[in-house]
Amino acid sequence: MEPQRKDIHNSEIPAVCISCEARHGGICGTLSPSQLTELSRHTKRRKVTGGSEVIGQGEQLNAYSNILSGVVKLSKMMADGRQQIVGLQFAPDFMGRPFLRESQVAAEAAVDIEVCSMPKAIIDRMIADTPELEHKIHEQTLKELDEARDWMLTLGRKTAQEKVASFLHMIAMHIDPENADKRSFDLPLTRADIADFLGLTIETVSRQMTKLRHEGIIRIENNRHVTCPDMERLRRAAGND
Known about the structure:
Elements: H1 2-10, H2 15-18, H3 21-25, H4 33-40, E1 44-48, E2 53-55, E3 63-69, E4 71-77, E5 83-90, E6 94-95, E7 106-109, E8 113-119, H5 120-129, H6 131-157, H7 160-174, E9 184-186, H8 191-198, H9 202-214, E10 219-221, E11 225-227, H10 231-237
Antiparallel strand pairs: 1-8, 2-7, 3-6, 3-8, 4-5, 4-7, 9-11, 10-11
Helix pairs in contact: 5-6, 7-9, 7-10, 8-9
C-alpha cells in the first residue's frame, strides 16, 4: 500500500486523476501534468441515474464528458417522433463531438453512470495546442466509424441469432474495462431497447436469448444477469471472424 500512497502525494498529476480510468485509457492520457492540473480545476464528476438524459438532440454543447462507468445510449429522433438507437458508449469513451455547437444525437444513461464533465472551450483549446490529444480523439472517431461499419454488417446480413449474440459479445467486451473476466455482466438495455438496436421484435430477441441459453452458450439470471461460460462459443455464434 505504501507505494500507492507515495504516488498520490508526490505525483505532479492531480490526485483526482490518478485512478481515473479515462486518464489511462481515454483522451486525458495524452495530457501533461500541467494540463491535467488546469483541466481538473474546471472538471466536475457527476452521477446520472439510469434512464436520465445526459444531453438532448439539438441541445447546445457547452461541455464534453469522459465516461467513467456505465453505459450511455445514443439515439436519433426523426421529425415525426420516431426514435432509433444508433450507438452505445462505454468507459473510457469521450462523449461529445469537438467544434460542433449542437449535439446531433441524444445521449441517455442506459444504467446508472458516472461521468467527468469538462468545459468545451478548454478542451477545444487543448486540442489545438496538443497534437497528441487531437490524435487520440481522431483515433476514437475512426474506431467508432469502424464499429459502425461492423454494425451495418450485423444489421444487414446476420441472422437473428447472430445479431443477438453479436450484441451480447459487444456488451461483454466493453461494459467493464477494469474487469479482465468478460464472462459475466448485467444487460444495460431492456429487451425493447435491444430489439430497437438490432432491428428485431421483442419476441424475436426473447426467442433467440432462450435459444442461446438452451444451447449452453449463455446463462441468464434474474432476466438481466448474463454469464457466458465460453466466450469463444459466443463469438462463433455471433458470426465474428
